[in-house]
């Protein structure tokens, strides 16, 4: 969930990207890797080992929210506190940055993968079909995080019948998806709320002025910024 669980598999995946740097004439490139702020020493070590096995001569690990803030174009050197919420695939990482440093951090291992899993589980329970992973992703993105129960929409989707193990088509309601993503979204929202409440008074006032920067794949989820 947002960290390296299999060093060998991660290394094989990274070799493709590092080989592109080698084609530019760099024999063993240096690599910058990102880790969640709650990653333990073993998880950081696994990330470094996987990157080195893939061909990096040296690896520097930076916190994911800091990298996300730079990628989003925030001036991380600003003396005013800025809050970043990075909703990735396995981790929602929250940080307040001021003068190039992390003032406070918190993370919850609930993110986009949990939203997809919850959609798949709900459909399996109600319709007896296991959605193809790309279909769970598609439904999640179409319905989004708005929690709209007023207008029901029906979607034709594909999955596998849990009894016969054969491919099947089924029609699901947008209400099913809204209910499925509600619990993971509550966890994410609760983590953000707790992080805001725990801010020092001065940083809290500055964050109110500067706003909240939502990054990561989850930032593209329809209705999440408003929620």
Give structural attributes.
44% helix, 9 strands, single chain, three-stranded antiparallel β-sheet, 24% strand, alpha/beta, 227 residues, four-stranded mixed β-sheet, flat
Q: What general form does the structure show?
A: flat
First-residue to last-residue Cα separation = 24 Å
- Secondary-structure element series: HEHEHEEEHEHEEHHE
Biggest sheet character: 4 strands, mixed
Beta percentage is 15-25%
> Which structural class should the secondary elements be placed in?
alpha/beta
Lateral strand order in the biggest sheet:
5-4-3-9
Low-confidence runs: none
Helices, by number, come to: 7
Number of DSSP strands?
A: 9
Please compute the radius of gyration using only Cα atoms: 20 Å
Mean pLDDT: 91
State the share of residues found in helices, binned by percent: 40-55%
């Amino acid at each position: 969930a947002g960290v390296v669980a299999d060093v060998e598999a991660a290394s094989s995946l990274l070799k493709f990207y590092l080989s592109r740097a080698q084609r530019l004439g760099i024999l063993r490139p240096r690599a910058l890797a990102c880790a969640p702020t709650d990653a333990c020493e073993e998880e950081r070590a696994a990330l470094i080992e996987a990157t080195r096995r893939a061909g990096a001569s040296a690896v520097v690990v930076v916190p994911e929210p800091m990298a996300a803030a730079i990628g989003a174009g925030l001036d991380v050197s600003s003396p005013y506190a800025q809050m970043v919420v990075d909703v990735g695939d396995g981790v929602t990482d929250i940080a307040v940055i001021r003068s190039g440093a992390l003032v406070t951090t918190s993370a919850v291992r609930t993110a986009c993968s949990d939203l997809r899993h919850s959609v798949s589980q709900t459909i399996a329970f109600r319709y007896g079909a296991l959605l193809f992973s790309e279909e769970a992703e598609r439904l999640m993105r179409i319905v989004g995080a708005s929690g709209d129960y007023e207008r029901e929409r029906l979607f034709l989707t594909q999955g596998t019948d849990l009894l016969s193990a054969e491919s099947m088509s089924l029609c699901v309601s947008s209400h099913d998806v809204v209910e499925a993503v509600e619990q993971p979204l509550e966890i994410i929202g609760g983590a953000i709320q707790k992080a805001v409440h725990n801010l020092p008074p001065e940083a809290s006032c500055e964050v109110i002025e500067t706003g909240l920067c939502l990054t990561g794949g989850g930032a593209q989820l329809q209705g999440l910024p408003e929620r």
